[in-house]
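Pipeline run #58 for the internal structure catalog. This entry was flagged by the ingest filter as a single-chain record with no existing model, so it goes straight to prediction. Upstream metadata was stripped on purpose; only the residue string is passed forward. Reviewer on rotation: M.T. Logging verbosity set to normal.
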Amino acid sequence: MRKGDNEVITCALANTGFEGLGPDVLMPIDVAQRLGFNLSGGDAEVYAIRTASGIAPIYRFRESISVKVLVSDRDTPIVRLTPIVSESVDYVLLSDKALTELGIVIIDAGNGIWCFRDELGRAFRNSCMPG
């Protein structure tokens, strides 16, 4: 993920249950700060959402970021995703529409198997481990 000169390389969870307003990427505060986002700068719309542990604020930024899937065997396109920041998440999550933009297809969610749309039926990729 890149915002200006700031770059973060991380694993992200593919989550079709995360139905964003568009191609969104949800991230923890520490990742957002490494990218240069300021939660108190007025550059984000603040929403209250219901989570498993109660109501939590999220910050949806107006400025999109560049995101690219890094794999060893091919170059992938850079797409623009809308960053959302939450104090209640520990990992980066990709929305359903972000997965579509990135061309990611989940083959076996429980085992972390996926591929790119143009590889469907021909390739199987293993997930990286967040952390």
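catalog note: The mean pLDDT is 91.
catalog note: The longest strand covers residues 44-51.
status: ready for reviewer M.T.
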